[in-house]
Amino acid sequence: ISNLQLEEDMLETAPPGFARVRVHSCGLNFADCFAILGLYSATPTGSFIPGLEFAGVIESITPTAHDNSSSFAIGDRVMGVTRFGGYATHLNADMRYLRPLPVDWSFDEGAAFLCQGLTAWYGLVELGNIQKGQSVLVHSGAGGTGRFALSIAQKFGAKAATTVGSAAKVAFVTSHSELTESDVLVRGGSAIFETQTQQWLLENQREGFDIVFDSLMGDYFWPGYASLARGGRLIVYGAGSFMGDTGNRPNYLKLGWHYLKRPKMDPLEMIAENKSLMCFNLIWLYDKFDQMNDILNRMMSMEWEKPPVGHVYHFDQAIEALRFFQTGHTMGKVVLQCS
User: Fold this and answer.
1) For 57-78, what is each residue's pLDDT tens digit?
2) HSE-up of 174 (CA within 13 Å, CB side)?
3) Residue 184 β-bridge partners
4) Of 244, 279, 315, nearest in space to 51 by CA
């Protein structure tokens, strides 16, 4: 983490189909930590600029050769996603991955939305096929992706429960959702967690969860899988428990132990139990422009509340922000302000 340096460089002219954006805010994500620590397979080789999402103002537009029109104009307030490069005061953004910033949203709120919102939408809607009346368990409901997942469950009429890492986060979750305190499970070890989920299912008269949305794995993977109803889907998009508070560099001994203990599935048993496991990393869809645009458009068709921004740092405090992000004590989005 300490190798992260603030440098000045010349930004090339935006290529056709791109816009130069003056970035006001950029959002932090768990993938940033993994990438900086060298634990993210999609990371560019050599030196690179972290950051996957941002919000700012368009300064210039370079149209494509066959299309001089654009849905954007100079001066537009926008939010966007990028495959790295988001930790910058200016960047050239593919306009296919820009969206207008809602009028009543701040730049901080815009930088807190797209990446984690897309993750929650893709997992629950595109893969999970969430339906009205289903039961959903969302891990880490006080974090950005977890919060969006709870919003989606609410909009689709599903019954949700969520987990948090400490009792201090319960009030935050209930104040930003329709969940009651009994719907928020403060995670203990795997045995405690299994008891908590079974108790919730019993109290809510559910056979099991139709969807478990898992960003942790580790000790919570097998209890989550066991809590699935027939036809249930365990959807994994992260391995947060592998990381923990690693400090300045990875704890390779700890990571190696987690790797050796990682879950191993038997497809024949899954068929017999009628349960599914689906895993994804949205960054590998970044170059599938038509598919990603369709997903973005479907996601934006839902009415979203303002994203809760919990922690704001100045741009030159990026290292401090990342180290705090690693602690797992965050509630809401962590944002860097560039202006």
Assistant:
1) 999 999 886 665 578 999 999 9
2) 12
3) 162
4) 315
